[in-house]
């Protein structure tokens, strides 16, 4: 009479382990699917709320949009200011972020790269309010001479036309603050992508006589292009939606202007909502929510474009 298989029986263990593994896979798949559905449901809830509360704000009385007379004329300067601040922040942050990421992943010895990476990552933990206080009270005062120099020497460029602000609370200052805020995101993603480049690709380039920079340009950048685009787009999304730091730094006006060093600056959608929400009437509240819906649409379009660019690059690399 054969013995009953036990958990220690080598003939019974594989089946039991396979069953446990299948149950574990099914549990993990269900959890992941549920988390994805929860995120989609939350996103749908946000869209529904913005649509229900914001659509009435598209056709309010003209006095509600003061100093403008329509929703389009009210929103256009805000969208312009939002995009301008975000683009300026990326222009400042992206070269530094890529440079720091390359330094950490390819140039610095480990005893230096690890602390530098930690310090950069810690910048993401600083609250927006702290950045806003620092930018409005400290940074703005220190870069007033830079505003004057730009107005004197580069005043022929619309961005630096002037007259230069004496307080430093300008779009230029806000862009610098935003650049520091998005720097950790772009740097962290770029660093990881650069580090995943196949080592054989770089060694092959060096073996053919390429310099270190040429090896990076010919082997690392093509491999990491999609990740670099993703990093920049995530930084852009953060910059587009930033609220308190911009509201605390920027001396905003309801206008659309390219002049980034004067006291007349375009407001952003998020900062306008933050500064106007507390004293808004019910009609004005609908208008503010409608501008939030516009900001949501702009951010969604940016992320959609980013995914399309990344997918196209991945398909190109796979050929």
TrEMBL record:
- Give the highest taxon in the source lineage: Bacteria
Q: Which UniProt keywords apply?
A: Cell membrane, Membrane, Phosphate transport, Transmembrane, Transmembrane helix, Transport
Membrane spanning residue stretches: 26-51, 71-104, 116-136, 172-190, 285-310
What is one Gene Ontology biological process annotated in the Swiss-Prot or TrEMBL record?
A: phosphate ion transport
Q: Which PROSITE patterns does this UniProt record tie to the protein?
A: ABC_TM1 (PS50928)
Q: Which GO terms describe its molecular function?
A: phosphate transmembrane transporter activity
- Could you list the residue ranges forming a coiled coil in this record? none
- Any single GO CC term annotated in Swiss-Prot or TrEMBL for this entry: plasma membrane
> Where is this protein localized, as stated in its record?
Cell membrane
User: Mainly resides where?
Assistant: membrane
Membrane topology qualifier:
Multi-pass membrane protein
Keyword Hydrolase among UniProt keywords? no
Q: Where is the ABC transmembrane type-1 domain?
A: 79-306
Which NCBIfam families does the UniProt record give?
A: phosphate_pstC (TIGR02138)
What function is annotated for this protein? Part of the binding-protein-dependent transport system for phosphate; probably responsible for the translocation of the substrate across the membrane.
Q: Which family does it belong to?
A: Belongs to the binding-protein-dependent transport system permease family. CysTW subfamily.
| UniProt protein name | Phosphate transport system permease protein
């Amino acid at each position: 009479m054969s013995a009953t298989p036990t958990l220690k029986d080598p003939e019974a263990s594989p089946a039991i382990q396979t069953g446990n593994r299948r149950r574990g896979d099914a549990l993990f798949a269900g959890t992941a699917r549920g988390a994805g559905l929860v995120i989609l449901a939350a996103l749908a809830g946000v869209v529904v709320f913005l649509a229900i509360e914001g659509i009435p704000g598209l056709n309010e009385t003209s006095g509600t949009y003061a100093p403008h007379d329509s929703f389009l004329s009210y929103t256009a300067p805000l969208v312009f200011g939002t995009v301008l601040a975000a683009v300026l922040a990326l222009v400042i942050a992206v070269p530094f972020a890529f440079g720091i990421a390359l330094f950490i992943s390819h140039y610095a010895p480990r005893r230096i790269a690890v602390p530098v990476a930690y310090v950069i990552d810690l910048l993401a933990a600083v609250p927006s309010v702290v950045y806003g206080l620092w930018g409005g009270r400290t940074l703005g005062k220190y870069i007033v001479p830079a505003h004057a120099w730009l107005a004197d020497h580069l005043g022929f460029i619309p961005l630096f036309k002037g007259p230069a602000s004496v307080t430093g609370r300008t779009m230029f200052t806000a862009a610098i603050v935003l650049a520091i805020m998005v720097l950790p995101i772009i740097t962290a993603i770029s660093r990881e992508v650069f580090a995943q480049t196949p080592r054989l690709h770089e060694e092959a380039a060096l073996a053919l006589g390429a310099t270190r920079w040429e090896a990076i340009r010919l082997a690392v950048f093509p491999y990491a292009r999609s990740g670099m685009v993703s990093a920049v787009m995530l930084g852009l999304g953060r910059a587009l939606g930033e609220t308190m730091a911009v509201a605390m730094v920027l001396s905003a006006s309801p206008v659309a202007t390219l002049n980034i060093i004067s006291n007349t600056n375009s407001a952003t959608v998020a900062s306008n909502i933050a500064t106007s929400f507390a004293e808004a009437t019910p009609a004005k509240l609908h208008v503010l929510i409608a501008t939030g819906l516009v900001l949501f649409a702009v951010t969604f379009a940016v992320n959609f474009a980013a995914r399309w660019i990344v997918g196209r690059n991945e398909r190109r690399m796979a050929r």
